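Thread: quick sanity check before group meeting

JM: Hey all, I'm pulling together slides for Thursday and realized we never actually wrote out the predicted structure for the chain we discussed last week. Dropping the sequence here so it's in one place. If anyone has concerns about the input, flag it before I start.
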Amino acid sequence: MIKEICEVTVVHEEVVERVQQALPDMWAAAQLFKALADETRLKIAYSLTLEEEMCVCDVAAVIGSSVATASHHLRYLRENALAKSQRKGKMVYYSLADDHIHQLVKVAYEHTTEGDGHGDS
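JM (edit): ok, ran it. Output follows.
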């Protein structure tokens, strides 16, 4: 088994500098993962990979919640650019914001169902 820390401290300055210069602001990406870190919101997002769009009532039924609770989660996803909404008459339908979110949710699920999920080599 590999020890979790280096046995000696050696900073590879050229590597650190190269990475620091290339490292973008990750705030928005962190917000995206924060929004998906809630199991209910992730279930909603995954549901929207199975059906292109769903009304708030259907989402509530899928997650076993009130319409108000489903609406709250859907609004959070929309405010964080993960979902979009559209009113059709008296109904409001939600869909994922774009194909990137669709892929991200699917890949996250697939990753957790492959092997032991620990990624140790």
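AS: nice. The mean pLDDT is 92. The chain is about 55% helix and 10% strand.
JM: adding both to the slides.
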